[in-house]
């Protein structure tokens, strides 16, 4: 039975944690909403109505829907194909295929865009090395709506893969075997059973991919801005560079437009997932498996060819671009040079500063969120299902909305000095840090909640009978048991935050650059060779962290590491 002291500990812990959730999740969104709806006394000149009357808004909206829609179609084709083959067949090296297919999602979008820019066009070092580069003056094919859509599709195909794979794993093997014993061919099994049962999962994955594509900033910025092709996130970025009394109100209105579209996508995805929740009689908890037989080697060759096209070739182009003296120069024994890496290490103060800032922000965000999510998850698991769902949804909002929208919300919230202490956070690393905490809280919390849900409550009950307080039980019993999940959550946050661009693109200032901002600025200023060298190191860092998480995966609950099968 709880003592008065224990009861007070729980009460103050709950008040502190939920107050933190409100501060990180609710306040920025409310401030954004209030600014978007401000100045209604001006009538048709109100910022929101001005934005809705501006033709650029509707052009950017149309472009966003086109690139996101086409990108989603590409994501569905790629993600579904890999999910069906890697989940339902006896393909070899399954874990390796999944790891490689998930890698594009974890690589920062600006690095993905840069690698594809180095792969095509007359200045491509790899095409010049092979002697097949187009003539000088030829257009760069990636500077187009279709180029943006292609990379959005590749970047978000793993989201469709994950959504569909989770459904396919639940397909019972005995149901498939019963149909086979009845004489059904493999073709009829796919058409009459597997596709209908997994249709809703495909739609749910498509909705997630579409929402993610709508909020993606790095790819449309690097491929669209040079071509004068605007989507909603890049229009907000360009609008922030303008002047006038209503700039913040106008970008807040644009941000609400994106948030509204994302909200519709989220609701659609949740509705589809609810419809796809069903139980099957005879579930054996063992996924179906089709033997490829003589088709296994051709299938593996096809998978390898696709991965070489969407992953290996762009990365090779990126590496070659980093070791030549200038764009358009073929790679030979005479032109091979580490000058860009030497420049990055020895002469570029902004590079060292960006690495330091990104590593510092990502490390502190991961560490603090690991500390926060342990007691937060502990308290959430002790709430009713309805209350837990409400708070979890509130925590999800900053991560679900586009990063550029969250950045605008934090600019509005902290553009003026904080009352009482009179400290200004705008233009400082602290503001980026707070935005990271808000954005990545749900990323770190999910593994913790997953691990807590699998704990045996008898352990805590025994400690409670022995007189242990809630804090003692949390530290001495719960923490040792779920520490791998807490560590995995922190690593996931670090992995995402260290390369983040969308949030920091609007929050950075001189001296406070992050890696994502630095790569974007270098490419925009024409120094693509140095940007390529930095991007190569970023890819190595991402792959190394993913490998570390894979090594940790056997000690974690299923689903914590997305690419672990």
TrEMBL record:
Q: Which GO terms describe its biological process?
A: transmembrane transport
Q: Where is the ABC transmembrane type-1 domain?
A: 61-269, 355-547
Location of the protein in the cell: Cell inner membrane; Cell membrane
Keywords per UniProt: Cell inner membrane, Cell membrane, Membrane, Transmembrane, Transmembrane helix, Transport
- The portions of this protein that span the membrane are 12-33, 65-88, 95-117, 147-164, 201-227, 247-268, 301-324, 359-378, 390-414, 420-445, 474-498, 529-553
Recorded hits in CDD domains, A to Z, give:
TM_PBP2
Membrane topology, as annotated? Multi-pass membrane protein
UniProt cross-references to Pfam families, sorted A to Z: BPD_transp_1
PANTHER family in UniProt: FE(3+)-TRANSPORT SYSTEM PERMEASE PROTEIN FBPB 2, INNER MEMBRANE ABC TRANSPORTER PERMEASE PROTEIN YDCV
What protein family is recorded?
Answer: Belongs to the binding-protein-dependent transport system permease family.
For this entry, the protein name equals Iron ABC transporter permease
């Amino acid at each position: 039975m709880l003592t008065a002291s224990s009861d007070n500990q729980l009460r103050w812990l709950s008040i502190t944690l939920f107050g933190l959730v409100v501060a990180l999740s609710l306040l920025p969104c409310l401030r954004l909403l209030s600014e978007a709806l401000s100045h209604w006394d001006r009538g048709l000149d109100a910022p929101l109505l001005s934005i809705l009357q501006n033709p650029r808004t509707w052009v950017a909206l149309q472009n966003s829907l086109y690139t996101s829609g086409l990108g989603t179609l590409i994501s569905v084709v790629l993600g579904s194909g890999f999910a069906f083959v890697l989940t339902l067949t006896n393909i070899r090296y399954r874990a390796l295929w999944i790891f490689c297919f998930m890698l594009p999602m974890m690589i920062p979008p600006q690095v993905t865009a840069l690698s594809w820019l180095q792969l095509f066009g007359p200045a491509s070092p790899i095409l010049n090395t092979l002697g097949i580069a187009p003539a000088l003056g030829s257009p760069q094919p990636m500077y187009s709506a279709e180029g943006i859509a292609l990379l959005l599709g590749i970047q978000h195909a793993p989201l469709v893969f994950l959504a569909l794979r989770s459904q396919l794993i639940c397909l019972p093997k005995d149901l498939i075997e019963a149909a086979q014993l009845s004489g059904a061919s493999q073709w009829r099994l796919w058409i009459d059973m597997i596709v209908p049962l997994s249709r809703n999962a495909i739609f749910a994955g498509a909705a997630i991919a579409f929402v993610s594509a709508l909020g993606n900033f790095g790819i449309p910025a690097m491929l669209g801005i040079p071509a004068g092709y605007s989507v909603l996130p890049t229009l907000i970025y360009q609008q922030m560079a303008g002047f006038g009394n209503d700039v913040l109100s106008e970008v807040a209105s644009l941000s609400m437009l994106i948030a509204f579209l994302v909200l519709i996508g989220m609701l659609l995805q949740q509705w589809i997932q609810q419809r796809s929740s069903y139980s099957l009689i005879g579930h054996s908890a063992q996924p179906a498996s089709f033997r490829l037989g003589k088709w296994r080697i051709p299938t593996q060759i096809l998978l390898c060819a696709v991965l070489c096209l969407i992953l290996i070739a762009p990365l090779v182009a990126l590496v070659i671009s980093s070791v030549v003296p200038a764009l358009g120069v073929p790679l030979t024994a005479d032109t091979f040079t580490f000058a860009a890496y030497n420049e990055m290490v020895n002469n570029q103060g902004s590079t060292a500063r960006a690495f330091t800032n990104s590593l510092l922000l990502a490390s502190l965000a991961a560490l603090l969120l690991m500390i926060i999510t342990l007691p937060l998850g502990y308290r959430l698991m002790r709430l009713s299902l309805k209350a837990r769902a409400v708070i979890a949804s509130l925590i999800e909002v900053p991560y679900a909305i586009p990063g550029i929208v969250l950045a605008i919300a934090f600019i509005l919230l902290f553009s003026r000095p904080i009352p009482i202490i009179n400290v200004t956070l705008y233009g400082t690393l602290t503001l980026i840090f707070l935005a990271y905490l808000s954005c990545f809280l749900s990323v770190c919390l999910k593994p913790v909640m997953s691990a807590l849900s699998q704990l045996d409550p008898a352990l805590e009950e025994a400690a409670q009978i022995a007189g242990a307080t809630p804090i003692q039980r949390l530290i001495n019993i719960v923490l040792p048991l779920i520490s791998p999940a807490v560590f995995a959550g922190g690593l996931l946050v670090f992995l995402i935050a260290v390369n983040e661009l969308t949030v920091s693109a609007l929050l950075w200032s001189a001296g406070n650059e992050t890696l994502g901002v630095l790569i974007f600025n270098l490419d925009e200023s024409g120094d693509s060779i140095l940007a390529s060298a930095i991007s190569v190191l970023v890819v190595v860092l991402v792959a190394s962290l993913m490998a570390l998480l894979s090594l940790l995966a056997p000690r974690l609950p299923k689903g914590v590491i997305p690419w672990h099968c």
